[in-house]
Amino acid sequence: SADRLTAAIGSAGTVGRFGGDEFVVVARPGSLAPDDLAERCLGAFEAPVRSGDRVWQMSASVGVVVIDDQASSGDVLRDADTAMYEAKRAGRNTWRLFDPAARDSAVVRLHLEQSLRHAVSDGQIAAWFQPLVKASDWSVFGIEALARWCPTPGEFVPPDRFIPLAAELGLHDALGCQMVDFGMEAARALTAAGCPVSMVSVNMSPVQLQTEALFEHLDALRRGGHPVDQLCLEMTEEHIVDDNEWTNAQLARLLRAGVSLAVDDFGTGYSSLAALHRLPVQMIKIDRGLVAQGHTAAGRAVLTAAVAVARAYGLTVIGEGVETVLEAAVLRDVGVDVLQGYLFARPAPLDDLVQRLTSVDWSWDVDRSELPAPIGPPIG
Ligand code: G
Ligand code: MN
């Protein structure tokens, strides 16, 4: 590869090997424009490689940095690396020019990536738990485990920031299995404390369907006598509505492993009511956005329709992000089965959850007399 690069660059610069499959090309000032240089580098890998009777096609990703007089070699290599990863992300066989304006965010990101790798491998991502209650009487129904990451005391990285990053970095298998373990641990703790729950929800990334890690983990748990059947794996609707045969087959395997499945954040994507019947799930979780509209006639009609369709297919309906007594009442009235939200409890560490759910005089910090009488019968 070095020979090919050297031939492609000619007298315009010098080629050095930097790592296993990484090369550095230093161009002479004024010799080639950055785009010309990058295209020549990519072109060097176009011709297939023959080895015996086998033919290999190579591809490359190129990061280009334009250097000024003050640049230190360490900075330049780091910036080239950043641009190269941008190129990789954009798809193979392409190049990217390093953008100095993006340097700071790239450094922040690199730092975040490194600490996330460590956090997952060292088990520093914690699970917090939020209870789910029955809509009829607010008695405890289940819990949801939520990943929480505090890299240093007082520092909090929101899950919508690090979960996608974990998937991108290939950490989702490890993280997903850890969260399942946390969920099982919480179920055990609650049972031991005299407050058993019917369901333990854990969020799942669709990329976890692509490997065997989760399947093997669930099998091992079941063989170890853990109540895998209490587990509910939640997935956002965007990932399962496309009726992909392979996805459906993998979901069916999960069901055979004994867990139940839920559509998370229903109402944020396509919210296809028509698709509900063919999703291999037992539950839908109605997103906070729809819940918050429940006080309007239109919002209530949407909720009613969703419940009616879900009911027709035998699905349990959960309302998420319930923050007010009025929302809780509307959801109950339209026939939602289970509620979850700040009204009842914010996510909290396991000890706090156990304490809260088992304390003799527990209350949800709300006056239940505030709960309005049903606002007319459910529509339909
Ligand atoms: O994607 P999923 O629905 O699993 O996300 C749950 C997230 O919603 C958690 O991060 C949790 O902290 C947050 N959450 C839980 N209850 C409420 C609520 O009542 N209001 C709002 N705004 N967020 C909530
Ligand atoms: Mn969820």
Task: Report what the structure shows.
- The chain has twelve helices and 14 strands.
- The chain has 380 residues and is an alpha/beta fold.
- The structure holds guanosine-5'-monophosphate and manganese (II) ion.
- Guanosine-5'-monophosphate binds next to strand 11.
- Manganese (II) ion binds at residues 144, 203, 234, 264.
Please give the radius of gyration in angstroms.
27 Å
Which whole number gives the mean pLDDT? 86
Counting helices, strands and paired strands, the structural category is alpha/beta
Strands in their spatial order, largest beta sheet:
7-8-9-10-11-12-13-14
| Model regions low in confidence, pLDDT < 50 over at least 5 residues | 374-380
Can you write the helix and strand succession as a string? Answer: HEEHEEEHEHEEHHEHEHEEHHEHEH
Cα shape: elongated
Q: Quaternary arrangement of the chains shown?
A: single chain
Instruction: Report the bound ligands by name, code or SMILES.
Output: guanosine-5'-monophosphate, manganese (II) ion
Question: Biggest sheet: strands, sense, closure?
Answer: 8 strands, mixed, barrel
Number of helical regions: 12
Helix content: 25-40%
The total beta strand count reads: 14
Strand content: 15-25%
Distance between the termini: 70 Å
